[in-house]
Structure formats: C-alpha cells, structure tokens
Specification:
Blueprint: H1 2-39, H2 45-78, E1 83-85, E2 96-98, H3 100-103
Antiparallel strand pairs: 1-2
Helix pairs in contact: 1-2
Length: 106
C-alpha cells in the first residue's frame, strides 16, 4: 500500500511538473505572438485574432492546472483512510466503520 501511495504521489508530481512546464511554454509562445502581433497594423483582424486566441489558450491552460491542483488536494484529503458514518442507509444510529473501498459500493 505504501509503495502504491508513493507511486501515485510521484505520478501526480510528474503531471503537475508537466502542467507547469506547459504553462511556461505557453507564456513564452504568448509573448512571441504578442511581439509579432505588435508589428501588424493596429486595426488588423489577424492581430486581433492572434492576441485573443493565444490569451484564451493560455487562460485555459491556467484553469486546467488549477483544476488539477484542486483535484489532487481534494483526493489527497478525502481519499485517505477509513472514516465513520454515524447513520447507515436504513436509519440506525450506530456508527459504522468503513474504509474508502467499501464506501464506494454504497
């Protein structure tokens, strides 16, 4: 179990590193496209679409990275170990111990 948890932590770390590198590359591409777009005429539609397109893609990557971070944090916090349920589905008041694998079957 410990090796599995270490493996999951390593893979989520690699995925986070990949997302951070992807966002860094997108930022560099965005600056490059901005430099090219500033050479175009001010009212050019190509300039307008280049700037809007790169901004939307960059924002999407930031949102993807943020959602992945939130998912890893929530999964790490809620998916660890057994938890208590004070009432089962029939309504009895006795606390029942369940582990995370048994809770998925309810």
């Amino acid at each position: 179990m410990t090796f599995w948890l270490m493996g999951v932590a390593a893979w989520s770390g690699y995925a986070l590193l990949g997302l951070f590198l992807l966002v860094a590359a997108a930022r560099a591409i965005r600056q490059l496209v901005g430099a090219v777009a500033h050479r175009l005429p001010r009212r050019s539609q190509l300039r307008h679409y280049l700037l809007i397109g790169t901004s939307v893609v960059f924002f999407g990557m930031l949102v993807l990275r943020g959602c992945y971070l939130a998912a890893v944090i929530v999964d790490n916090r809620l998916g660890s170990g057994p938890f208590k349920i004070s009432q089962n589905w029939r309504g009895s008041a006795s606390p029942v111990e369940h582990d995370a694998t048994q809770a998925a079957h309810f």
